[in-house]
Every structure is written in C-alpha cells, then in structure tokens.
Amino acid sequence: MKAYFYTPEECGMAEFPQGLMRLTGFDITMSPEEADVFVVPCGINYIGAIGIKNLPYLKGNESRHAALNIADWFKYVTEVPGMWFRCDSTRSVVEREPSTIPWPWPVDDLSEYFNRPFERDAVFVGWNSTDINDVACESIIAEKRLDSLVARKNKFYGWIPESQEKQDSHTFFVDTLAGSRVSLCVRSIEAGVCRYRFYESISMGRIVAHICDGHTYPLADRIDYSAFVIDIPECEAEHTGEIIADFLSSHDDNDLRERGAYARDMFQRWLHRDRWDELFGEVVTEKLVPVGCIVREESYLWAKEES
What we know:
Blueprint lengths: L1 E4 L21 E2 L8 E4 L3 H10 L11 E5 L13 E4 L4 H6 L3 E3 L17 E8 L3 H12 L5 E6 L10 H15 L1 E7 L9 H9 L2 E5 L17 E3 L8 H10 L3 H19 L4 H13 L3 H15 L1
Parallel strand pairs: 1-2, 1-3, 3-4, 4-5, 5-6, 7-8, 7-9, 9-10, 10-11
C-alpha cells in the first residue's frame, strides 16, 4: 500500500517540528491519486482542528487520514473521523471522537531494572499533582501491612531544562521503582490522561496500582492489562493501601515476577517508542483493509469532482 505525506505548506506551516509520524510497510507516493493513506506528519496539536479541516485531500478521504498527537491536547477534538493516534486519549475524547486510537507516551525502556530485588511493597516518588494523589499516598502510608516509600514533590520536572537536580530526581525515581513490587500511579489530570509513570512502570515490569477513572488503554485488544494493573476506582482512593495489601497477600513474588515479565514483554511488543513506526503501519493497515482499492479510487475522484 502507498502513503502520501503532506508537506508543511499543505499543512499551513513553514516547516514541521521534530518527531514526525512515519509508517513502516508503506511505499511513499508523491501522487495523492495513488494514496491508500494520507499522513499528517506533524502533531495534531500543531496543525489544530481548523488546519486538519483545511487539508487539500481531506474531503471524501477523512477515514484514511492519519496523525499522531504527543501532547496534552485532551480538551480538543478534530471533528474529523480520521485515524488519530493520541497519547492524551481519554474516555471523554473517545466519546467525542470515536475514531481516536489511544497511544502510549514515549517513555524510556527500563527493562534492565526488571531483575532488581524487591525492597518494599509500594512506592510513589514524584509530582504531587492532585488532592486524590495525596489521599492515595496517605492510604498506603497508613496501611500497616505495607512497607512503602512515599516521596511527594511540588515540582513537575517534565518541562524543566536538564540539570543535575532533574537527573538526580529521575535516578531516585527509577531506583525506588526498581526496588518496589507495586507502583502507585494516580491521575494528575481530572480528564483521565494516563501519566508517564504508568508506562514507565510497565516498561520495568512492575505491578501498577492505577487510579484514573477516565483512562483509555492503548492497544487493549492486544494487551491484557488486568494481568499487571490493579485498577482502583477514584471513589476508593482512600482504601488504596488496603487494596494493594490484599492483592499482595494473594500473590507471591514469583507470581509478581511472572506478571511483570508479561507487562515488560507487552511493552516491548506493543508500546515501545522504538517500534512506533512499525506499529503505526500495522494499525493503519488493519484500519484500511476493509476500505479496499476500488473504494479508495472512487472516494478520491468524488472528492476532486466536488472540490
């Protein structure tokens, strides 16, 4: 199959930012008439909903347009039924735009830490972004059956320039996560966007205690998240410690390692950022197969005649 990649000029931009979307397994065509899929290389948040609607080959080909969003743009939708891969996907986004394809954040591969010995039961190290995060942290601190480590900070390091402080903070986060059976991950945005630590924990092969009612898991038809995620309703946040302790009481370390190994394998196969180009190609191909070449050609010709 063939992919047409929009130019910056066609997207109303002088040039594209870094981090362009690519598709493995597709031949690149310079002719829109030959295209099976139309790729908007820049992020959806860069071109915006109006920019997408102004794309020259959109009309009649909406469902064959693909783009990626790696930004917190969850308040907005395109109102175009394309293949929109979104790291900021939430249930509300999918309800407003059903063609949304939930996608993971591009986190580091932490699988080298998988075999670190467990030193504690539960951990939270990082930005204390919401009241519900506080409630969950206090709950695991208070649970006497848990050996936990909680280090809350009032600083978000994501947008801070590289520094020794930022590096030291990240090193502490990784080291403490590596020594823990369960990683506490509470939503930081009310809408339900999954936090980076959710995918970092999976990357390392750790059980995740996830508190985020509005989440959507990427590639959930391929990954059994229930094998390594303890989904805790937000209304139960005050019982987080008890829920984690009950889970650990019925799962020994061998079982935790097996579940963690599965999580890590799923990360390597379906979530790893180094495989995104290939994964985009796989998912887009699956979406396009029902369309077929005849519908593609008729759709494009119809769009030309009506434009």
